[in-house]
Amino acid sequence: MRKMWAAAALVGAIAASGAASADGEDHDRARSALERGEVLPLHAIIEKVERAYPGKVIEVELEREHDRWIYELRWLMRGGSLVKLEVDARDGTILGKKGPGASGARDEGGAR
Question: Which of 6, 13, 33, 59 could anchor a disulfide with 74, C-beta 3.0 to 4.6 Å?
């Protein structure tokens, strides 16, 4: 069930990325990147982020920025604060964070 949810969430993230493009080119590029192993599946990203930021994902976008894929996550911390995270889709490294709960993360590497 969890794999099914993660797959559906990834398709949703890819679809959201493709929604900005009328021809769906972004959607196709994102799907191809996943199939080629250029990006981690969303469930792997979520598991890694959960270790540093206890909580849950409420929104995901997968975007291509500066020749690399970036997952943009809106994350609800257990305490109720909202954090926006930018995560390298290739390896799960947290590249950036914003929000009142951002400083309360466990040390898992990546941007602080």
Answer: 59
> Which stretches of the chain score pLDDT less than 70?
1-23, 104-112
pLDDT at residue number 73: 97
> What residues make up the domain containing 11?
2-104
Q: Which of 17, 50, 47, 43 is nearest to 31 (CA)?
A: 17
Three-state secondary-structure class, residue 22 = coil
Of 24, 70, 65, 80, nearest to 45 by C-alpha is 70
pLDDT of residue 2: 55
Specify if 109 maps to a domain. no
Residue 64 lies in a domain: yes
Looking at residue 60, which CATH number applies to its domain?
A: 3.10.450.40
Cβ-contact 62, 14 below 8 angstroms: yes
Indicate the pTM of the whole model: 0.69
Residue 110: inside a domain: no
Reading phi first (left if > 0) and then psi (alpha if -120 to 50, else beta), residue 24 is in: left
| One-letter amino acid for residue 55 of the chain | G
